[in-house]
Specification:
alpha/beta; Rossmann fold; Helicase, Ruva Protein, domain 3; 4 domains; 50% helix; binds adenosine-5'-triphosphate; binds magnesium ion; DNA binding; DNA-binding; transcription; ATP-binding; ATP binding
């Protein structure tokens, strides 16, 4: 290790270790100096000690600067492509029991959740029904320091007003008719862990006041008891309502809203992240196949086209249920007839793609609602064609295709999954072709 030399090359550089050694020599000579008074020796020794401490501090500082220079700088999310951001989340082992693609809104939500998870800050998750709010709450718990502590979920919309307080904070025996024994509330059960307050927007105003008290004082009182009990509980709340608007209209306490939403995560509706739909088909198709002990269901182009352009008011939950239904009702291949009647397109009505005489392709959305959507569908289609041609040329070898187009192999695998392309089909075709040539 060398001292920083402001005079530039050519001047003598001195090592910290060398300096410290010299100081040690001065100190030991001083200690036994015959011609000096004791007081003088003490004074000089003190000066030598100060000098030694200063050199050691400089040495530590330099080591710190060197280490910082070696450490790779985390790139700014804004400088990365969506694919790189997704891969970065996976590489950082951010635990997420689900699937996600390149949608910037979802990636942003996951990145915020990842940063919030290790802290104890309250998190408010909002999004339409079925967008994955509960899943996100579990992800935040699982990635935090309380992961091995309790995770207690409470549906605030499902508790009758008169039982709310007892449900959340517990009660003492005899506190009200029916309270036949002492009972712990959800907050106490979640002590040291996380409490997930689902449908927080349904919490009546009286409940909101009590919740605010817990957030401020970190203590609760069981119904019918004067005793205060300290609780250390991380709060994650979810809602499909607009709490800010509700608080402006006086339906939700503004102070509670601000306390709950220190970190605010918004999950986009599925129709805003259509690019993720093929990925979810394949994810839930495999999941349903495993649950139903069958092979993953295939789809006719007409069904696939319908499902790619459907609005999914129930978001991911609706898509998941549809795939389970198709996997249960269909044989090898599912068609539009297997859809629930209320969403099934009429039998003899051609899809728009058919009506316009375009070729019916699996990745093309039937009714692009906007130019952006049409562009995305076209880009999906190009991606699919590229992958298929690549696999054809490499005889179905994913590693070779990854090498040829300089892509990360796991990213390539994910794209194949997204499009429901199986490399083994291409390998089989290549083998069949080779056999035919031989015979
Ligand atoms: N990104 C995802 N990948 C895989 N599965 C997902 C994803 N997001 C949500 N899901 C699944 O969708 C279903 C609905 O998710 P969840 O219950 O978390 O939604 P929610 O927003 O809490 O809905 P609600 O408001 O109706 O309670 C669950 O089965 C969940 O596992
Ligand atoms: Mg939920």
């Amino acid at each position: 290790m060398k001292l920083f030399d402001p005079l530039g090359p050519g001047s003598t550089t001195v090592s910290y270790a060398g300096l410290l050694e010299k100081i040690e020599i001065v100190r030991s000579t001083l200690r036994w100096a015959p011609k000096l008074e004791r007081a003088e020796i003490e004074k000089l020794l003190n000066q030598a000690n100060t000098l030694r401490d200063e050199v050691m501090q400089l040495s530590r500082k330099e080591r710190f600067i060197e280490a910082a220079a070696l450490e790779p700088q985390a790139p700014d999310a804004a400088d990365l492509t969506a694919g790189q951001r997704r891969q970065a989340l996976i590489d950082r082992s951010f635990v997420f029991e689900g699937t996600f693609g390149d949608n910037p809104k979802l990636l942003a939500a996951l990145e915020v959740a990842e940063k919030a998870a290790p802290t104890d800050l309250p998190v408010l998750i909002d999004g339409e029904s079925g967008t994955g709010k509960e899943l996100m709450a579990k992800v935040i718990h699982a990635n935090g320091s309380r992961a091995d502590k309790p995770y207690i979920s409470v549906n605030c919309g499902a508790i009758p007003d008169n039982l709310l307080e007892s449900e959340l904070f517990g009660h003492r025996k005899g506190a009200f008719t029916g309270a036949s024994s002492d009972r712990k509330g959800k907050f106490e059960s979640a002590h040291t862990g996380t409490i997930f307050l689902d449908e927080i927007g349904e919490l009546p105003l009286t409940g909101q006041v009590k919740l605010l008290r817990v957030l401020e004082a970190h203590e609760i009182q069981r119904v019918g008891s004067d005793e205060t009990i300290a609780v250390d509980t991380r709060i994650v709340a979810a809602t499909n309502r607009n709490l800010r608007q509700m608080s402006e209209q006086g339906h939700f306490r503004e102070d509670l809203f601000y306390r709950l939403s220190v970190i605010h995560v918004s999950l986009p509706a599925l129709r805003e992240r259509r690019d993720e739909i093929p990925l979810l088909f394949s994810y839930f198709g495999d999941e349903a196949a495993e649950a139903l002990r069958r092979r993953p269901v295939k789809m006719t182009p007409k069904l696939r086209e319908f499902l790619l352009s459907y609005g999914y008011p129930g978001n991911i939950r609706e898509l998941r249920n549809l795939i389970y239904r198709l996997s249960c009702l269909a044989g090898d291949v599912a068609d539009v007839d297997h859809l629930p009647e209320d969403i099934r397109p009429q039998r003899d009505m051609p899809t728009l793609v058919e009506a316009f005489g375009a070729q019916s392709t699996a990745g093309l959305s039937a009714v692009p609602n906007s130019l952006a959507e049409a562009k995305r569908a076209a880009s999906d289609e190009a991606e699919r064609a590229f992958l298929e041609r690549g696999l054809q040329e490499t005889g179905g070898t994913v590693a070779e295709l990854a090498r040829r187009c300089d892509m990360n192999r796991s990213h390539l695998q994910m794209l194949l999954k997204k499009h429901g392309i199986h490399s083994k089909d291409f390998r089989r075709r290549a083998q069949d072709g080779a056999l035919r040539e031989k015979s």
